[in-house]
Amino acid sequence: MGLVTQTSMRPAEAGDTAPPAGRPWIARPAEAFSAAALRGRLIGSIRSWRDYPPSLRLWFWLVPALTTVVGGILRFVRLDNPHSLVFDETYYVKDAYSYLVSGYERTWPDKANDSFNAGNPDILLNSPEYVVHPPVGKWMIAAGMWLFGPDNPFGWRFSAALTGTLSVLLLTLIALKLFRSLPLAAAAGLLLAVDGHHLVMSRTSLLDIFLMFWVLAAFGALLLDRDDGRRRLADRLARLAAGSTTGRPSGAQLLAGPWPGIRWWRVTAGVCMGLAVGTKWSGLFFLAGFGLLTVLWDLNARRVAGIRGWITGGIIKDGLPAFASMVPVAALVYTATWTGWFRSQDAYFRHWAEANPSPMWGWVPDSLRSLAHYHLEAYKFHQGLGSEHPYEASAWSWLVMGRPTSFYYQQSGPEALDCHAARCASAILSVGNPLIWWSAAISLVVLLFWWAGRRDWRAGAVLAGVGAGYLPWFLYPERTMFFFYAVSFEPFLILSLVYCLGLVLGREGDPLWRRRSGLYLLALFVAAAVLLSAFFYPLWTAETISYEEWRYRMWMPSWI
Questions:
Q1: Residue 317 three-state SS
Q2: What are the residue ranges in the chain where pLDDT is below 50?
Q3: Mean of the per-residue pLDDT values for the chain?
Q4: What does each C-alpha distance from 513 to 4, 43, 61, 103, 504 come to in angstroms?
Q5: CA distance 481 to 164
Q6: What are φ and ψ of residue 406, in 5° steps?
Q7: Taking the CB of the first residue and of the last residue of the chain, which one, N or C, has fewer CB atoms within 10 A?
Q8: pLDDT in tens, 257-303
Q9: Quick one: which of 43, 40, 37 has its CA closest to 249?
Q10: CB of 392 within 8 A of CB of 403?
């Protein structure tokens, strides 16, 4: 069954074209710049799902579909429980309703939550509200409220649940693209679907689940761009070689190499990154990290293709266009997300520029200058955000889940309908599946070795996603931070874990007993993770259980 049932962990640059004497890196000079040879060096033996027999081709549809269905069931069943705003929903859900009414944030009267929980959200005041997060996530929450009504929890949380479900589909497809293995793709999608941290964030309307989705979509677009760019480079070099009497491009043509043209998948990534930054400013770190990653991919492609000035050529013909394809596009998309603020007349700081004329910046339109001032004030707010909170968690503790965030907790007696014990509890705790998270933390060390020691680009790509989402938080040690921020890079932790499961699964050329034992171990790990998620499930969905059962699930004192 080849690459359908297991993955080869060799770097794709090694190529898998029919090699002479088992040496894939050797080619006759006259054939080195043929389209087949160049594609073999640059993208390896990547096959389309259409190249497989019909019996196997079906699984390329079934595996993503089944993992998505599992993720959707876990996220949508009892989505309206609890029937009240929890944790920071008190900010973002009410802001989203304000967007539906006026297109910008307005203030609320005292005890607005009681009225909102009772299904009467129409109590907005006329004065604008000052907020410090961009609009995209709140517009996405508002879309669910527009579809199912703002007077019920299902409407508040629909968009978060849908986004979390679609991210399971995205991760399954990304894992299939990275590892070219259906079992590993299924494992990636299923592990994300059943993990409690992602599940909690998918069932509550906070902004971070939307940030994670757009970041993951941008990463997927860049994976597609990587192959597309290498195909273009191979085809253009092959055409240059075909027009030469020597069967290879001239020295001048190989000095910097050809320009690959407009990379539309990279533009798509820029759009997604603009939406990510438009959800939370921490998306900027992903924009910088992914931008650097895609340029490094292009530099290596030119080196492998045989271009002499691959550094200069890569910077000029790939790096600069990459910047133009992503950064200005992301900036335009980000600015467009503030359309509701631009169209308003009394949003916060909307007319600040008119009241504060500037001789130096007077040429800038007042609306843009007012928006710039808004951002400056928001940046100052974030810089000074250092108040104590009972569930604050340093970034050092995130990978081991040292202090997960409690979103909701209530105790009740035997009068509770779902509990017959003397003391009952109902909770939403953003703790992940310990087997998944602790194994993923260990897997990062393995990936560092395979990236630095084996030069596997896939390991580097996954580490870039983790690093862009995780490492910047260490720059702000005084800032109040929470564990649930880690959902932005959780899909990359899952990919890191699945990468290591691919090492257990084995290579295509391994003996049959080795491949079967690897598959059994993979299935055993996933099954254990699913069973452990079933054990922790009441903690993630506000099910009413006895207090003793709740205590059994508090594996660390810091979880309480």
A1: helix
A2: 1-23
A3: 88
A4: 17, 30, 28, 62, 13
A5: 22
A6: -90, 115
A7: C
A8: 888 888 999 999 999 999 999 999 999 999 999 999 999 999 999 99
A9: 37
A10: yes
